[in-house]
Amino acid sequence: VPVVGVLALQGDVREHLVALAAADAVGRAVRRPEELAEVDGLVIPGGESTTISKLAVLFGLMEPLRARVRAGMPVYGTCAGMIMLADKILDPRSGQETIGGIDVIVRRNAFGRQNESFEATVDVKGVEGDPVDGVFIRAPWVESVGAETEVLAEHDGHIVAVRQGNALATSFHPELTGDHRVHGLFVEMVRANLAPGS
Ligand code: GLN
Question: Which residue in 37, 126, 143, 148 could disulfide with 105, CB within 3.0 to 4.6 Å?
Fold first, then answer.
């Protein structure tokens, strides 16, 4: 059974641990580099990306995170987690760093004031069956993608889910819906990475 960490510096960690268990993985909170070293994949939760970024630097996790993502560890970021996995933020707060790994530019809080939080059905490539119920909370969108980045979903003409190699990101929060198919997709990525070629 794959062991999947959830970066537990800030954000909706518990909801991801529940979703991972439902998707047949063992979820584990990760706060220290030694804990990061022991997981087969990692989820970066929703929350506040500036806070997660600062705490990652403070806890000595930023470089280990970058190293593991560069080495191909499967990662999945939701909302603030998507921002953390983007190579570039359109308008970063001062000092806000990202882990990177996905060759995209993200726009924070992109859906604007009138629409800060909403739900919408989203068709996600790779998720079988009905569209996913997308919960968007002060969500980012992907402003532009690089040549290697696959667009998995759009909402209102804006990119809200992407994948590049072993890195997956969604603007929305599947961990808040009770529908664990997106986590299932990610756990499959982790399994495939553990057993290459099988
Ligand atoms: N607006 C937050 C940020 O910029 C993300 C919100 C979320 O994760 N729900 O980090």
Answer: 143
